[in-house]
Amino acid sequence: GSTLQAAAAESGRYYGTAIAANKLSDSTYTTIANREFNMITAENEMKMDATEPSQNQFSYSSGDRIVSWARSNGKRVRGHALAWHSQQPGWMQNMSGTALRNAMLNHVTQVATHYKGQIYAWDVVNEAYADGSSGARRDSNLQRTGNDWIEAAFRAARAADPAAKLCYNDYNTDNWSHAKTQGVYTMVRDFKARGVPIDCVGFQAHFNSGNPVPSNYDVTLRNFAALGVDVQITELDIEGSGSSQAQQYAGVHQACLSVARCTGVTVWGVRDTDSWRASGTPLLFDGSGNKKAAYTSTLNALNAG
Ligand code: G3I
Q1: What's the pTM value of the predicted model, to 2 decimals?
Q2: Is 235 among the residues known to form the active site?
Q3: Which residue among the candidates 43, 45, 235, 239 is catalytic per the annotation?
Q4: Out of 60, 138, 259, 271, which could bridge 130 as a Cys pair, Cβ 3.0 to 4.6 Å?
Q5: pLDDT grade, residue 279 (50/70/90)?
């Protein structure tokens, strides 16, 4: 294939990017996005603060613009994210107990119902595990409503949109030997054993020199897939430049391609200037929209798979 989406499709995989609604009027941006990607994630527009700015008053216009752009261009959509300790609307941030649990479940139900039938996979719960060596849940207002909050969110999402795949999504879960990876693995194994509805695990894959692409990435993806879930690279970016960055991009794609149930890769933005890492150059296109060495190594890796 001569584009990322065409090359990924040769092995039955998708290739995605994060899209920001306020950039859909930038034709350099939309030209690249339309040509290279066939799976779209809203970078911010479907988050809790964006979709429920006041309690029980839902705001879907920006998310809808992204879904409409994606669907009119024949692309699928990953939903991001229904429940998260971060990016909560102000009214939710200081809630606790039953009121918060019910507000969270109502949010999951309402948003998943609004987008019912239009979402390939939802990040139902985002970033619920702690960094460091504990392998435990992260403390948050949602966690303090009870350890079962995650499974409750998954059950509510399944009831609202039975056709969407339901994913758990997190970062720093790429290295098999890290405690955080093991914590998430144990949760997914438990969910599968008890019939909690979970279909996929998303690996955000935000890499930099302090958090490099692990050499055992394929092991991590294969072990999760063996639990009976799809695995997906959901927010890929790698700090750096030139051949070093290109090599690391190739490695991530080789790891995904070596695992049958690694169903697709999403990069977290189109051009370097679109990245949340404002001062970095972590993506596949430079600020002018030119293909970088990392683009070529990624395309070659996809074509070799
Ligand atoms: O749109 C407002 C603008 O009106 C305002 O003037 C400006 C001032 O701060 O803020 C703008 O909103 C910012 C928004 O990005 C759009 O640029 C928010 O402050 C900023 O917090 C927000 O950052 C996003 C971040 O998630 C929030 O958590 C990034 O764009 C987005 O790339 C990033 O994505 C996350 C994933 O959702 C989860 N995994 C990690 C990943 C990277 O942090």
Answers
A1: 0.98
A2: yes
A3: 235
A4: 138
A5: confident
The answer to whether the CB of 274 is under 6 A from ligand 1 is no
Measured in angstroms, how far is the CA atom of residue 45 from the centroid of ligand 1?
10
Write down the residue that tokens 């584009």 correspond to: 3
Q: Is the CB of 17 under 6 A from ligand 1?
A: no
Give the mutation target among 19, 23, 41, 44 for probing the ligand 1 site: most ligand atoms within 8 A of CB: 44
pLDDT tens per residue across span 147-197: 999 999 999 999 999 999 999 999 999 999 999 999 999 999 999 999 999
Instruction: Take atom 11 of ligand 1 and give the residue whose Cα is closest.
Output: 44
ipTM: 0.95
